[in-house]
Amino acid sequence: MGCERMERMTLSGGRVLDPLTGFDAITDVHIANGKIIALGDKPADFIADSVLDVRQQVVVPGLVDLCARLWENSTQQKAHICSETRAASLNGITTLCCPPDMQPIIDNSAALELLQQRNHRSVLLLNLLPLAALTKELAGEHLTEMYTLTRMGCVGVSNAQMPVANSQVWKNALEYAATYDLTVFIYPRDAWLGRDGCVHESALSTRLGLRGIPALSENVALARDLLLVEQTGVRAHFCRLSTAQSVDMIAQAQAKGLPVTADVALHQLFLTENDNRHYDTACHVYPPLRSDRHKTALRQGVKSGVISAICSDHQPQSPDSKACIYAESSPGISALDSFLPLSLKLAAELNMSWHDLFQRISQQPAQILRQPCLGLNVGAQADLCVFDPEAVWSLQKADMHSMRYNTPFLSWEFKGRVTHTLLNGQRSFA
Shortest CA distance to 339 belongs to which of 71, 141, 65, 151? Predict the structure, then answer.
């Protein structure tokens, strides 16, 4: 944080909700040396440097986002680490995982060191945890030095959205990862089915005249991946599920005791292929928005816990990459500014407790990343999100902190807004 002396702080009068322990009460939180030192009455020798009045607000562990892209490109910049980490922090996120398909690709120690240097220069306001590339240049042919990269700071390995078509290479990679107990983050996508598509394959895609990506593309790949997970014993996390069949297959694998978890992008729980009817490029995402049936199954998977994490899948795009015909536009949503309010909206629509919701966007993502489980007990690191649950507002470009505004949620009305973010007991933004 760049602070010579850590601020001693009291959060006064907020509703303190801990998804790890189930604690839920209106009380004070006292912080010193980056940790929670007491709840309720302050220690006799504690004198706060500052007191934040958070009455009528909710204090929860900092949000953990399993996927946000922080584009770095010197020739055509889409966004950059400084702007996007600031946007994440302003929206209650204290830990963020980025996939390896940055510029340059995180497939060697030099690329990882460059990312770490950029983090330092940007005055990092959150815990940024990168994934290492599974294969060199994500080409699916030659394995990287996965173990070395994880020893240097990567929290897992992934081939991002580039499928490994060669099953022998894929099996070798999973065996390598299993040998060193690395978590493999897998996008289940077939290399050929729907390769040139941009929307969900259906009667609607035919009427729109757009090439489709069938649900089968995900389901076939997931079936193969689960067989290889069972064979190799690797710890696997499946990223950005989008089909009803995927939810069923993950549930069956978990029932068999396989070491698998899964997540879903938040926009998949609200939007469907019908949102593409007017060729709105803000709705061009990958995997594509699917039918109501798939959305309903994904929502049920989140509520039941089969899908243990929700992520933003933040992909800031340049205006030019969206201001073109649908099929030629770049997929992705700028999702950090809508992450918490959309999550709260989801909980309300599913009649889901906040305890369960914050497990999906804080505690369980931390477990997947094999980070210390965030909680609000005495001794826990004070990575905190504070929000006003009664704040009613609508998302406008002027409200967005991300460098890009490619979102289909502009003008949506939300209830609930972040007021403070603390990282290691210090105010990132307030």
Answer: 65
CA angle at residue 328 from 205 to 400, to 5 degrees? 100
CA 35/CA 323 separation, integer angstroms: 46
Q: Which residue, 177, 171, 288, is CA-closest to 241?
A: 288
Q: Is 292 a catalytic residue?
A: no
Is the dihedral angle over the CA atoms 61, 67, 73, 79 positive or is it negative? negative
**410 phi and psi, to 5 degrees?**
-60, 135
CA nearest to 63, candidates 348, 414, 338? 338
159: pLDDT strictly greater than 50: yes
pLDDT tens-digit map of 236-275: 999 999 999 999 999 999 999 999 999 999 999 999 999 9
Architecture of domain 61-368: Alpha-Beta Barrel (3.20)
Q: Domain 9-59+382-401+413-429: give its CATH code.
A: 2.30.40.10
User: How do 384-394 and 309-311 pair as beta strands?
Assistant: unpaired
Looking at 142-225, which runs of residues are DSSP E strands?
Answer: 157-158, 183-186, 199-200, 212-213
The string of pLDDT tens digits covering residues 31-44 is 999 999 999 999 99
Is there a contact between 210 and 242 (Cβ–Cβ < 8 Å)? no
From the candidates 28, 313, 337, 383, which is the catalytic residue? 313
Q: Please count the other Cβ atoms lying within 10 Å of the Cβ belonging to residue 397.
A: 10
pLDDT above 50 (res 76) = no
- Asked if 342 and 40 touch (Cβ cutoff 8 Å), the reply is no
> How would residue 71 be classed by pLDDT, with cut points 50, 70 and 90?
low
Supply the pLDDT for residue 75.
41
Q: How far apart are CA 85 and CA 65, in angstroms?
A: 11
| Beta pairing class for 24-32 and 35-39 | antiparallel
Domain ranges of the chain: 9-59+382-401+413-429, 61-368
Contact indicator for 335, 312 with CB cutoff of 8 Å:
yes
Q: Which strand (E) or helix (H) includes residue 245?
A: helix 244-255
Concatenating the DSSP letter of every residue in 395-406 gives --GGG--SS---
Whether this prediction's pTM lies above 0.90 is answered by yes
